Amino acid sequence: MSESAPRPVDRHLFAGFLRQHRGAAVAVAGWSLLEAVPALASGLLVAAALDRGFLAGRPAEGFLWIGLLGAAMVFRALMTRTLTPWLGRLVEPLRDELVTAVAAGAVHRAAAGARDTAGAGVARLTVQVETVRALVSALLRSARQLGVSLLMAFVGLAALSAPVAAATLPPVLLTLLLCVPRLRVLARRQRRQLRAEEALTAAAGETFDGIRDVVACGARDRVADDLSARITDHRDAVRAVARTASANTLLVSLGSHLPLLVLLLAAPRLLDRGALSVGELLGATSYLISGVAPALRSLVAVLGSWGVQLATVLGRLSRSTDPARRVPARTPGPDIPARHEPARAPGPDASARPPRSPDLSLVDVGYAYGPGAAPVIDGLSLDLPAGSHLTVVGPSGAGKSTLTTLLAGLAAPDDGRLTLGGVPVTEVDRAWLHREVTLIPQEAYVFTGTVRDNLRYLNPRARDADLLASAEAVGARALVDRLGGLDTPVGLDGPPLSSGERQLVALARAHVSPASVVLLDEACCHLDPAAEERAERAFAARGTTLVVVAHRISSALRAPRVLVLDGERTAIGTHAQLLGESPLYADLVGHWVAAGTP
């Protein structure tokens, strides 16, 4: 879908929101009409003050009409004060609902295999959502008031003098019509600015997160050049927006003076024919100078800046708040070889079926984080029969965590074939996958609740004896006892846990689950080597297919097979085989032994 094509989420976002908050919207509309009473009455009151008062020799009546105009201004201030809380009742819920929608969309898209960068997601959830809140607030305060005031000024002008209204309305309409295509150009350039902002945020975040690797690999100049190019692109996009906005401002400034010029040219004839009195002429001039001209200039300026920016940001957010949106297919082209057409992201499907067994098989599997990016995993073939025990080692960035993501069915490979029990990963029944495959990442999560709630999260029917047995098996029983037993609150309601203690809770949770495939992605990195060995042996003893991603070579010594991931130097075999066949593995073992680590 193109950037310029309106999505249903864009068209109906505010319509649905206003339906849910109909009472506040009706109140805002009603108070806005009352707030615009001075704009409607100002010219009429000025004309009456002159024609019925001062020019008729009745200055007291003239001052009375002027006094009514002052009272109308006070009335307007009171209406604005009453209206302001109602604006808050629309703005704040909108911000809260957008945060919920963006967060939920990110979770759904991640579950469906989307590959959003963390930086872009943070930009949406923080900068862009807060931008929507600020823009909606500003538009409700300014554009709403200006639009109603402009409408009321012409209604008052028509009531004062229909010929003057008929003569001055066309220039205003012409100005608005000329601005529409300019606003579209501005919207396109705003979208380019947002894309550049997201790309810069993502690139900067990735660079800062991996700054040690950048320095270690001597890639400082290349990374600096890449960031400089993104900064330049963002600067050019901002300048393009500024140029277009300036041109719009000039157009509106010229157009807003045309109605007054038309009135001044027509005034002598209208006065001579008696179609317009002196008071009516001054009242019409008041409408145009203090009502129409500033309202027109400000309204178009506000819509051309805040309005276009709001539409652009909402369009960008809608691409991440739609839970059903899938990863767009990448068409082969000059920068994307044909072999990198991605497989369908895993998700619910009518053809989904449970695998025959927990056997895992990879044939020439490749995976890259984005169109045109270098594959993180390229041409990997691997068989993991049920009950296998494999340790994965390799340098940072070699794709170890990516491999566990693929094995867990959280993403589909771009190339090759990945099957679970003979079923392609894109067709695996999700209920089976959630029950039979457990992935424990490096940063273990502890839920707010009791120890019991945490341990049986993946197996709600587990008995207390089963929970304690699994805690004993992985070495977490002492922690459970120290906390005070299974009924002890943990998480936000309990005592703080160290990183290692959280890992023990996650390991016990996975051990008591019915999972037949367990993936430990640095899940024991905060434990000492003895505790790590105990946990790994506990999973191996239950006959589970076990894949361990670890930096400690001691994990490789315990596994029948070891996978060394490192691009073209990827190798698989036993510890003894790899010492002779993989220079990288020999180096890793040598560094480990030299460091004297057990």
From TrEMBL:
It is found in: Cell membrane. Keywords: ATP-binding, Membrane, Nucleotide-binding, Transmembrane, Transmembrane helix. Residues 321-357 are annotated as: Disordered. Residues 26-294 form the ABC transmembrane type-1 domain. It is a multi-pass membrane protein. The chain crosses the membrane at residues 24-50, 62-79, 146-165. Its main location: membrane. PROSITE patterns: ABC_TM1F (PS50929), ABC_TRANSPORTER_2 (PS50893). Residues 360-591 form the ABC transporter domain. The keyword ATP-binding applies. One of its GO terms (cellular component) is plasma membrane. GO terms for molecular function: ABC-type transporter activity; ATP binding; ATP hydrolysis activity; ATPase-coupled lipid transmembrane transporter activity. This is ABC transporter ATP-binding protein. It comes from Streptomyces sp. JL1001. The lineage of its organism: Bacteria, Bacillati, Actinomycetota, Actinomycetes, Kitasatosporales.
